[in-house]
Amino acid sequence: MKKDRRSEVGREAAASFERGKMRDQLMELIVGAGVKAIEGVLAESVTALCGARYGRRAAEEPRRWGRQPGELVLGGRKARIQRPRVRQAGKEVDIPAYWALQAADPLQERALEQMLVGVSTRQYRRSLEEFPGLETASTSKSAVSRRFVAATAERLEALTEKSLQGVDWAAVMLDGLRFGDHVILVALGIDAGGRKHLLGLREGSTENATVCKELLGDLVERGFPTDRHSLFVIDGAKALAKALREVFGARAVIQRCQVHKTRNVLDQLPKHKRAHAAKALSQAYRQADHDLARQQLHNLERALAKDHPGAAASLREGLEETLTVKRLALTGALERSLSTTNPIESTNSVIRRVSGRVKRCRNGEMALRWVAAGLIEAARGFKRLKGYRAMPTLVGALHALDRENPVTPMRKAS
Fold first, then answer.
1. 196 and 129 share a domain?
2. pLDDT value at position 276?
3. Domain that holds residue 291
4. Residues 122 and 171 occupy one common structural domain
5. Could you tell me if 260 and 178 lie in one domain?
6. Are 210 and 118 part of one and the same domain?
7. Same domain for 270 and 383
8. Which of 15, 86, 216, 401 has the most beta carbons within 10 angstroms of its beta carbon?
9. At which of 155, 174, 194 does a domain end?
10. pTM
11. 134 domain residue, yes or no
């Protein structure tokens, strides 16, 4: 029995060895074919410059000039090859195909993609397929880190300079995300069809009115409309509400997040009083009728005023703005989607996952780059806002406000 078991193990080991050997041979074949193909492309490019080999050429025309070591992008790393040389009138001539194949952009894209899916700079080399017999470079921690920095800087620039004109915007969600010692304010736009769009971000030490105003002013500079009403869903921060009124005035239709409001009120209460208050808040926010919901909230505020004035003051502050979606006659899934900042919170959760490996944030520029990388990853999974089929109701309500309170375009924020 033991002998049979040993024989079985031996056969499995031999089979595994053979599979590994076949795999290596296959990889060598693939790499060899790839290198041959690259050599063929380079040879054709040289022929286009110098004509057929051994043909007569005038002294002033480009001439073949041997070979020298070079590098090309292959499979997420740089592969070292022997590249042809061409000279003309004593000077080196660039070979178009070589410089096209040597482009660094594919490496930046590969490094960015690897970082977004959770591969660290130290593990980058291990994440690549091994190419037997091929000498490679640019897979070190520092090389990958440089490419990641370059790629995220490009994405950040593209995000913060993107034009916002030509889109029928209906709502904007604003929320702050803490990253090390920095707070990154993120803006998520929602168009009339319920589609989500990344609008911009701003860095500061806190979610203060100055940072909020700078972000909003940037949105206006890039084309966000100021000549009509728009819905702004915020987390409840006073600074955000203040900045919105300063930049957009009466055009800002503000909805305070009901989840944040509930949390802020409950934090002011002793534990044994929280369940009753949470139930009362939930019942009010579930009411379909705006006036009834407001009455229930005022009743709760008065009930708390004597024994818990802090909780009552928290509920009173911005109370009407927690019911804006009801005042706009939104119902069902769309009302629930726009009554809280949950849609942007889910985006922030992706940012936290992507940036979770950062142990030390060196500066605000680094914080912005990592948040931008997380936003890019989150945007890949964007779906329409829940309840998007009812978006015409929101658009119609905003247009009604435009007719009731006509406004002229504002000057761009300074």
1. no
2. 95
3. 165-404
4. no
5. yes
6. no
7. yes
8. 216
9. 155
10. 0.70
11. yes
> Is 231 part of any domain?
yes
- Mean pLDDT on 164-180: 90
User: Which of 67-81, 94-108, 133-147, 340-354 bottoms out in mean pLDDT, i.e. has the lowest?
Assistant: 133-147
In the numeric block, the tokens 């890019």 are attached to: 376
**Which residues, in sequence order, are bridge partners of residue 202?**
185
Q: Angle between the 258-267 and 271-286 helix axes, to the nearest 10 degrees?
A: 160
Q: Number of structural domains, the chain?
A: 2
Report the pLDDT value the prediction gives residue 9, as an integer from 0 to 100: 52
Q: pLDDT by residue (tens digit) across 323-361?
A: 999 999 999 999 999 999 988 888 878 777 777 666 667
Tell me, yes or no, whether 65 and 173 share the same domain.
no
Q: Does residue 410 form part of some domain?
A: no
